[in-house]
Structure formats: structure tokens, C-alpha cells
Amino acid sequence: MAGxxxxxxxxxxxxxxxxxYRRRHLLILTSRADPPSxxxxxxxxxxxxxxxxxxxxxxxxxxHKERIASLMSSQQLDVALMRRDDAAALRQGRPPFAEHGPxxxxxxxxxxxxxxVCRDDFAARHAWLIAEALDKSRSALPExxxxxxxxxxxxxxxxxxxxxxxxxxTGAPMPGLEPxxxxxxxxxxxxxx
Length: 193
Fold this sequence. Notes:
Strand content: 15-25%
Mean pLDDT: 81
Structural class: alpha/beta
Number of strands: 6
Largest sheet: 6 strands, mixed
Distance between the termini: 47 Å
């Protein structure tokens, strides 16, 4: 009886600590069905954990790209490494993501065949800091595709740069702290103290 009451009080999922874990760790979604995305995700997470330790960046594998779409569209997770065509399809709400989209995705950086994407409610300061950390880690990520010049064209014109990343690449100062649109999803991504 007490177990049933505990399940009821935790909400629909018995994993009450999952929300806490997501708030404290920047989880970079990749797809188990796309093994190179996981390997790349591990390198990105290592760079971010080194350069932005408070992000507690970790790579996470969804079973397939449709699950990435589900987690992003339901605002359970904020960032993912996606192949360009998949990111564009999710942003536009096209198959195979029609039931999840459109999801307003933005690019932080391009990395080879992939885009590091985030939802539109991802804090500008966080996107700026991630863009800076990855830009300054080109030796660890030689396939990094960064915008250049004052126009800062995104690596894929179908998914625009996040305003925070755009600011970094055009020389704007780091944005100030801002309230996150989803208070329970705020990450601790910030400048090391």
C-alpha cells in the first residue's frame, strides 16, 4: 500500500530523481541506431565537462532518432547531436517526426555531418558559453564547422543559429543570466567560478 502511494505521489513516472538529474547535468542526446553520433557525443561531453565543469555534461543515447524527437518536443531534454536532414525534418515537422514536430530547433555549432541543436527556449547565455567552449577546443573536435564573419551563417541554412551562439560568433558580449522558460529544466551551465 505504501509503495502504491509513493508511486502516486511521484507523478506518472516512478523516477522522481530523473528531473533532478536532468537539471544538474547537460545531457547531450544521441541515437543508439547511429553509433557515430554517440562517439562524437562522448567527445563533445568531454570538452564541455573540461571547459564548463558546472555543466556536468554527459552523453545520453536514445534508442532511435524518433525518441530524440519525443524527448526534445516534450521538453524533457534540451540539446542533441542530430544529422542535418533529421534536424531539419524535426524543425519542419516532417516525417519521420510528423507526430513530434514542428519543434523550433536552433543550431549551436555544426560538427561534421551533425548539428549540435537545442530548443528555442535554451538560454542564450548557455548557447554562447557552449559555442565558445567548442570553438576553443578545435584540436579535440577537428570536424567542427563554425560560422565566420559578421553574418555568422549557420552550418545548415534550414536550422538557424541560436541567438546566443550567433552572439558569440559575431563578437557580442556574453548574455546575462535570464530566467529559463521552463524553470524545472534550468541547467547549471555557466562560467567556472
